[in-house]
Design a protein that fits this description.
The chain is mostly helical. It is built from 11 helices and 5 strands.
């Protein structure tokens, strides 16, 4: 009983540490439930369950346990099981782990021993890492063992029903902490945030151009249209206006963005 209580205490301390020091991850971790399982070697996660071997947990520090918790919560929050459907399960798990641990390292987390991390996958999405790993291992997705695919499909069916709840939690949490300036570093790579409504550039430009359009009359100089007939009529006038368009072509702008910029330019 005392042995179990020690593990529960360490898990509680790790959760508390996350809530105080990393509220974004702490809030996501608060939705996890814990399950002790002596039949696994270290840590596992399924849906919103954090499954652990008590002997493995015993040798970890609070910081390392906090990292495990944040890792498990992010796998769920980023829908890695559903996103991995149709992929080689073992390789996808490895790729998604690399992506999450890179994010955690960026935010000052302490990785446990033998954690899946490599600096060469820095700031890459799980899908990008997966493609690299499949290429390096010379694997074919069609050659994945049948039982592996069935296991993955079963996980997908179990987890898909909780995606909507997690998506709502993630969206609300991200937007709240973004306003407070407390978003974790690099999280924008993974999570879409609601932005404030932008002013339509078309409306803005129209109002500006229209205010300078030729819309008033004056006698000096008179209209040249009827001067040859000896008739002096008021001429319409307005300010001359030049429009300059600047397009960002720096290294951060890819071909897709550049095409969007040019499409907008043609609309003027």
């Amino acid at each position: 009983m005392l042995f179990i209580m020690i593990h529960q205490q360490k898990l509680t301390q790790a959760k508390t540490k996350l809530m105080l020091e990393n509220p974004y991850f702490g809030t996501l971790v608060s939705s996890l439930s814990f399950e002790q399982n002596s039949n696994i070697a270290s840590i596992s996660h399924q849906n919103d369950k954090f499954i652990y071997n008590e002997e493995y947990l015993e040798v970890l520090t609070i910081d390392e346990i906090a990292t495990h918790l944040a890792n498990s919560a992010m796998h769920q929050a980023l829908f890695h099981t559903t996103r991995g459907e149709g992929k080689i399960n073992s390789v996808w798990k490895l790729a998604s782990d690399y992506a999450i641990n890179d994010l955690l390292i960026e935010n000052g987390f302490v990785l446990p021993p033998l954690a899946n991390y490599s600096s060469r996958f820095e700031r890459l999405y799980a899908e990008e890492i997966y493609t690299i790993l499949v290429g390096e291992l010379d694997l074919n997705e069609d050659e994945e063992p049948k039982e592996e695919k069935e296991k993955q499909t079963e996980q997908f069916q179990e987890e898909i029903f909780s995606d909507e709840d997690y998506e709502l939690l993630l969206e609300q949490l991200t937007n709240k902490l973004e306003k407070q300036g407390d978003l974790p570093k690099g999280i924008e790579r993974f999570v879409k945030t609601k932005r404030k409504a932008q002013i339509s550039w078309r409306d803005k430009l129209y109002r500006y151009v229209n205010s300078h359009a030729k819309s008033d009359y004056r006698m000096f100089p008179p209209s040249k249209k009827h001067l040859y007939r000896g008739i002096a009529l008021p001429s319409i006038y307005g300010e001359e206006l030049k429009i300059v368009v600047a397009i960002d072509t720096s290294a951060s702008i890819d071909e897709t963005l550049l095409e969007i910029f040019l499409t907008e330019l043609y609309e003027i």
